[in-house]
Design goal:
Strand order of the largest sheet: 1-2-3-4-7-8-9
GO molecular function: alpha-amylase activity; calcium ion binding
Radius of gyration: 22 Å
Cofactor: Ca(2+)
Helix content: 25-40%
Protein name: Alpha-amylase
Number of strands: 14
Pfam families: Alpha-amyl_C2, Alpha-amylase
Structural class: alpha/beta
Shape: globular
Number of helices: 9
Order of helices and strands: EHEHEHEEEHEHHEHEHHEEEEE
Strand content: 15-25%
Largest sheet: 7 strands, parallel
EC number: 3.2.1.1
Length: 362
């Protein structure tokens, strides 16, 4: 990972959980999970530090499985384990005696009431422990729609991760099955969330994912908005947009909203040459064969060598059904789609190409 140029790796939720994947936490301070023991985790984080790959903790603090029955016969108390909250820590909308939620409900589990000062103090102590004692350096906030972004701001200010990213995921604008061209209201909601964290967190660019996975099916005109910019969060606030093709929810074994598998290299040719903070899905990198792996590494190399950053300027030159072409930072030009294109001028040389994509450098 270090050799390929990754700077951060998002790990699964570290705590003991009712579901093996880690997203139904109960005892937050127990780091013995289905993934392995606390000692194994500490050893991993130590090794990652040696290789200068930051470890990103998946922070699941929207909800928490109770240990004992309380008010109304619900499992809304946490007796017998560290952070032993009572019913006041659970929102009134999910069976507790706390205030109502400051966001959307995650159904079937007690949702944590972040308006309570005692709750926030305990969460901050735990986050500081993960950061300073266990050795996580970055945070990913799970289900960020579930509670107000102002609490994310407070948690980041107090625990001081190097980098934070939030999962603010709601549906793109569809007419039936058809994705609308204009997704401005969708990306605006993500941007409002980033703003409300005091601009301290980045956010996964779900807008770009939703548009890009339709665009590669012969609708590449979608990749230029009405102002001539990229149509996702990347087009408006690239230094805070974490771009991606798939994650454990959208792809992999769950496949809730998958990127078309025969087009993933065009997808990576797009996000790895463009502004924003690109991320690569573990499955694509390690499980889809060496050809895909090597093409992704090559694109990462070009990005690094040519000095493309999250804020690099971009000029979109073509956005037709079967051809998209752009120049990024005056260092790289690229095209995806079946249409033929190459940059004009003999200062450009082909850096890499593959099925449906080409990248040139000066």
């Amino acid at each position: 990972m270090a050799k390929s140029g990754f700077t951060s790796a998002w790990l699964p939720p570290p705590s003991h959980s009712f579901a093996p994947e880690g997203y139904l936490p109960q005892n937050l301070y127990s780091l013995n999970s289905s993934y392995g023991s606390e000692n194994m985790l500490r050893a991993l984080l130590n090794t990652m530090k040696q290789y200068k790959v930051r470890a990103m903790a998946d922070i699941v603090i929207n909800h928490r499985v109770g240990t004992t029955q309380g008010h109304g016969g619900k499992y809304n108390r946490y007796d017998g384990i560290p952070i032993s909250w009572d019913e006041r820590a659970v929102t009134s909308c999910t069976g507790g005696l706390g205030n109502k939620s400051t966001g959307d409900n995650f159904h079937g589990v007690p949702n944590i009431d972040h308006t309570q000062h005692f709750v926030r103090k305990d969460i901050i102590d735990w986050l500081r422990w993960l950061r300073n004692t266990i050795g996580f350096q970055d945070f990913r906030f799970d289900f960020a729609r579930g509670y107000s972004a102002k609490y994310v701001k407070e948690y980041i200010e107090n625990a001081k991760p190097i980098f934070s990213v939030g999962e603010y995921w709601d549906s793109c604008n569809y007419k039936g099955q058809y994705l609308e061209y204009n997704q401005d209201s969708h990306r605006q909601r993500i941007i409002n969330w980033i703003d409300a964290t005091g601009q301290l967190a980045a956010a996964f660019d779900f807008t770009t994912k939703g548009i890009l996975q339709e665009a590669v099916k012969g609708e590449l005109w979608r990749l230029r908005d009405a102002q001539g910019k990229p149509p996702g969060v990347m087009g408006w606030w690239p230094s805070r947009a974490v771009t991606f093709l798939d994650n454990h929810d959208t792809g992999s074994t769950q496949a809730h909203w998958p990127f078309p598998s025969n087009h993933i290299m065009e997808g990576y040719a797009y996000i790895l040459t463009h502004p924003g903070i690109p991320s690569v899905f573990y499955d694509h990198f390690y499980d889809w064969g060496s050809a895909i792996h090597d093409q992704i590494v090559k694109l990462m190399d070009i990005r690094r060598i040519q000095g493309i950053t999250s804020r690099s300027p971009i000029r979109i030159l073509e956005a037709q059904p079967n051809l998209y072409a752009a120049v990024i930072g005056d260092k790289i030009s690229m095209k995806i789609g079946e249409g033929t294109w190459c940059p004009s001028g003999n200062e450009w040389s082909l850096a890499t190409s593959g099925h449906g994509y080409g990248v040139w450098q000066k």
